Amino acid sequence: MRTARKSPAAGTINLPFAVPEPIDRAYKSAVRKVGAVKDETLQVANKVEETVKSAASTVRRKGQTIAKNPQGFVNEVVRDARGGVDKVRTGLSREAGKLADDLARRIGGAVTPVIETTLHRLNVPTQRELKTLSSKVDGLSRKIDALQKPRAARTTRTRKAS
Questions:
Q1: Is residue 123 part of a domain?
Q2: Rounded to two decimals, what is the model's pTM?
Q3: Is residue 59 part of a domain?
């Protein structure tokens, strides 16, 4: 014959034998922790449910707005797309400028030695050589001027007759 048992209250064990105290404490602790996890799970589930309901409501309202004014929706999408295109265009323009500067620098670096070599073969002086020659000519001009000044002083003297 079976006897009807009451369902045990949370944290108690109804067994036909004695349960050692450490095991009973561990069981009660586990029951409390499982209860806490259950409560947290219910709270999270409620928050998720509220979020989903809110999102569904927002989607429903947006759908109704689109249904009422599809042309307005299309205009809004096109306007947003143009804004995105402008951002992309600006970025591309900036990148193109960087690439052009880099290409000019590379070409200049590659072409300059070739031009200098060709000019040397044709005996055309470089800018540095012209500056050096110009400074040498200026120095020689000063020396010539210095040599001519004493002569001018000598020729301007007059001799007395004796």
A1: no
A2: 0.36
A3: yes
What's residue 91's pLDDT?
86
Q: How far is CA 4 from CA 7, 13, 14, 122, 152, in A?
A: 9, 15, 12, 119, 146
Are residues 73 and 65 in contact, defined by beta-carbon separation less than 8 angstroms?
Answer: yes
Query: Of all helices (H) and strands (E), which one includes residue 120?
Result: helix 70-121
Give the pLDDT confidence of 152-162 residue by residue, as tens digits: 555 555 666 65
CA atoms within 13 A on the CB side of 147: 6
Question: What is the per-residue pLDDT across 58-78, written as a single tens digit (0 to 9) for each?
Answer: 999 988 988 888 888 888 888
The count of domains in the chain is 1
Is residue 25 a part of any domain in this protein? yes
Q: Is the pLDDT of residue 2 over 50?
A: no
Domain extent at residue 40: 20-68
DSSP letter at 16 equals: S
Cα–Cα distance for residue pair 102/91, rounded to 1 Å: 17
Dig out the tokens for 14 from the structure: 């109804």
Domain assignment present for residue 14? The answer is no
Place of tokens 């449910």: 49
CA distance 99 to 92: 10
